[in-house]
Write a structure and sequence with these properties.
Blueprint: H1 3-18, H2 29-35, E1 55-58, E2 61-64, E3 68-69, H3 84-96, E4 101-103, H4 112-121, E5 129-134, E6 136-138, E7 145-149, H5 153-167, E8 172-177, H6 186-198, E9 202-208, H7 212-221, E10 226-230, H8 242-249, E11 252-256, H9 288-308, H10 312-323, E12 327-329, H11 336-343, H12 352-363, H13 374-377
Helix pairs in contact: 3-4, 5-6, 6-7, 9-10
Length: 387
């Protein structure tokens, strides 16, 4: 592959990531094995799939306690998916099993993830919450990914009109700025969102990976409903400032990559070789050396999985939920078995003593490798310019 081709694939993946069947039993490891076609072992009986009934609040927006991230469904982020029709079925299965919160963005595809979500949810639109994002410099007509970011108010409004058509709806429940634009004051962005809310096209808004002062300034113009940042067992950066800021201001928090791109489920390891076009191959944390060092987290999860009768992925999500009642993880899924396993997290919780014990053990594990490639990481924590 040529250097130019490699760079194009990288930039497309960067935009997408920055930009997160039969019903079988997934309440525990044995059932998860059955759903994936593996022998359950130990004679464990199958159980029916969990229906997600618990709800959480992001600000004053009520959503299911686990959402579904739809960024991988176009097949351009983690490699090809089985089919577009299967992705639509997965979203519909999520609805049937109690998921009400679906996350997408114009950058995912670009545009294709929104189209999939729109097709899947059109018949249940009033029963679900759809989140999408603007902010990359994407041509609203062609979907061409142009250099840099673009949060100019006129561009935001054009982008939202395109989103509404692709999502087959007249409003977006939660609209995020995908990344803070270093060329546009956040007050101008918030003003554009206020206009869209008045017009009925948007109901709530949020920021993704913002700097803390930008959060305060945005919230002062148009109150924020949610912040969406990476947060997982390998990356706990939001604990430094953002979570306390959300608590102070009454803003909810949405975790993208809550399963560390699949690492904390045990599905990738130092021997994994990513397919061509898989964004994870560009992530420094996924070098063989760094993954080998970070396997201590997976070992800890595996020990607790036996203890709790859960899967490592379920424990990863349960730990995030245990941090605050207004935290909602949005794991992605392109296989029904993975979706149902994630929903099965509802069956498990840490007691206060267990949470302290697990977190103490986690604190003792040094994590190796940056969470994103340097050009993408540079877009996180940015403070918008002053007006």
């Amino acid at each position: 592959m040529s250097d130019n081709s490699s760079r194009r694939r990288f930039l497309a993946g960067a935009a997408a990531v920055a930009a997160a069947p039969a019903v079988a039993s997934l309440a525990g490891p044995a059932a998860a094995a059955q759903a994936s076609g593996r022998p359950a072992g130990n004679g464990a009986p199958a159980r029916t799939a969990t229906t997600l009934t618990s709800r959480r609040r992001l600000g004053n927006l009520k959503v299911s306690s686990i959402g579904l991230g739809c960024q991988t469904m176009p097949g351009a982020l983690y490699g090809p998916v089985s089919s577009r029709a299967d992705m639509v079925k997965i979203i519909r299965t999520a609805v049937d099993q109690g998921v009400t919160f679906f996350d997408t963005a114009e950058a995912y595809g670009p545009f294709e993830s929104e189209r999939i979500v729109g097709d899947a949810l059109r018949k249940v639109r009033d029963d679900v919450v759809i989140a999408s994002k603007f902010g990359w410099n994407i041509d609203p007509d062609t979907g061409e990914q142009l250099p840099g970011l673009n949060s100019r108010p006129a561009h935001i409004k054009r982008a939202v009109d395109g989103m509404l058509k692709r999502l087959r709806t007249d409003h977006i429940d939660l609209l995020y700025q995908h990344r803070v634009d270093p060329a546009v004051p956040i007050e101008y962005v918030a003003g554009a969102i206020k206009d869209l809310i008045r017009a009925g096209k948007v109901r709530h808004w949020g920021l993704s990976e913002p700097g803390p002062q930008t959060v305060r300034r945005a919230h002062a113009v148009q109150p924020l409903t949610a912040i969406q940042n990476e947060y997982n067992l390998l990356w706990r950066g939001p604990e430094q400032q953002i979570l306390s800021l959300c608590e102070e201001l009454g803003i909810g928090f949405v975790c993208w990559a809550p399963l560390s791109y699949g690492f904390t489920t045990g599905t990738i390891n130092p021997y994994t070789r990513f397919t061509e076009g898989d964004f994870r191959a560009w992530v420094p944390r996924h070098s063989a050396e760094n993954m080998a060092a970070n396997m201590a987290v997976v070992q800890l999860l595996s020990q607790w999985a036996v203890r709790k009768g859960a899967t490592p992925g379920q424990l990863s999500l349960a730990w995030l939920q245990a941090q605050k009642p207004w935290i909602v993880p949005i794991p992605s899924a392109t296989r029904t078995a993975h979706l149902l396993e994630n929903i099965g997290t509802e069956e498990f919780a840490f007691t206060a003593d267990e949470l302290r014990e697990f977190t103490t053990a986690l604190d003792a594990i040094p994590i190796r490798g940056e969470r994103l490639p340097a050009p993408v990481l540079a877009l996180s924590g940015v403070e918008a310019p002053l007006p």
